[in-house]
Amino acid sequence: MPPLSLGGLTLAAPVVQAALSGYSDRAMRVVARRHGAAYALGEVLLDQFVATVGTNRRNLARLAVADEEHPVGGQLMGANPDDFPPAAARLVTEGYDVIDVNFGCPVKKVLGRCRGGYLLGVPETALDIVAKVRDAVPLRVPVTLKMRRGIDDSAESRDHFWTIFDGAFARGVAAITVHGRTVKQKYVGPSDWDFLAAVKRHAGTRVVIGSGDLFSPQACVAMLERTGVDGVSVARGAIGNPWIFTQTRALLAGRPLPPPPTVHEQRDVLRAHWALAVELHGEDVAGRSMRKFAIKYARVHPEYLAVRDAFIGVKVNADWQAVLDRFYAADAPGRDAASDVDETESCAE
Question: Hey, do 4-252 and 263-327 end up sharing a CATH topology, with the first three levels equal?
Fold first, then answer.
């Protein structure tokens, strides 16, 4: 597969990590990049939060960028077009290389505040946001967009999709990520890859990234081959499974599928992710935030349920190391992460 281009940025492979609300902080992104993600997006941030964020450690951690993760994208969400420009400019100042606008989140409280997927129903407002973001950041900084295939499957919703899709490119976006479900679907039912294929045919040379139901390297390759999209955006399939990027790139290069990570390979990544989280958040916050990662990492361990239950009680470094000492001391083959797909609702994909 050819490399993926985002404006003036050329990515080494067409497989990237999506923005994941509550997950894709600096620590997760660094782990993903070390394991083959060609690019990663930070978790979605409210425009008003970014523009007015204070100086306490917890808030600044949500904006933090590591030297080793460039290029990195920052994703914004909001309702008022005038709130986006100062937030976009702030993300560029903080070191983000790409500004992504979220028109895809299907969570009820987000829709109720006229954000995320709600904007797919108001093309004029959506395109005003795109134009204001593009004008607010230097031309060297690509602006991208995240969409779903519409609010629902009505003709009006489909017309709105195409109005926003074509209008956003006309206003200078470098790429658009399209999730194959509607906002109404949330994460229920299959992602419509036939629609993604139709979008790419319509787009021509314009860059389209596909999203939805990417829980295995085989699925990532299949989406690229079946739809013709320029890249794939892995969301929930990357939580606790950074190896999906290495595995996908191996298949794309014509190499055999690497086996699931061994227990010791898992242990090394768990230690690295924990250390990155503590560096970013401090031990107390990391202890809480890493539990949700750990129960996902447990899926590839041969004693999945026991390890998952042990990680649920982790609070501090001593707890974390105790689980590693108990369950990760002896090496053994791992299990396939895609064997347990979690449909947890999140602003992901």
Answer: no
Question: How far from chain centre, in Å, is Cα 144?
Answer: 13
* Helix, strand, coil content of the chain in percent (nearest 5): 50, 15, 40
Task: Please write the tens of the pLDDT for every residue from 246-286.
Answer: 999 999 999 999 999 999 999 999 999 999 999 999 999 99
Instruction: Name the architecture of domain 4-252.
Output: Alpha-Beta Barrel (3.20)
Please identify, in words, the CATH class of the domain defined by 263-327. Answer: mainly alpha
Q: Give the pLDDT mean for 164-176.
A: 98
Q: What is the pTM of this model?
A: 0.94
Q: Which pLDDT value is given to residue 348?
A: 55
Domain boundaries, the chain: 4-252, 263-327
* Residue 127 structure tokens: 């395109």
Up-side HSE of residue 170: CA atoms within 13 Å toward CB? Answer: 8
Question: At residue 182, does pLDDT exceed 60?
Answer: yes
Instruction: Just list the catalytic residues.
Output: 105
**Token pair recorded at residue 25:** 């902080």
- Residues 69/30, Cβ–Cβ less than 8 Å: yes
State the Cα–Cα distance between residues 124 and 28, nearest whole angstrom: 35
Q: Answer for the pair 180, 149: CB distance below 8 angstroms, yes or no.
A: yes
Instruction: Kindly report, residue by residue over 215-224, the tens digit of the pLDDT.
Output: 999 999 999 9
Q: Measuring CA to CA, which residue among 148, 72, 141 is closest to residue 107?
A: 148
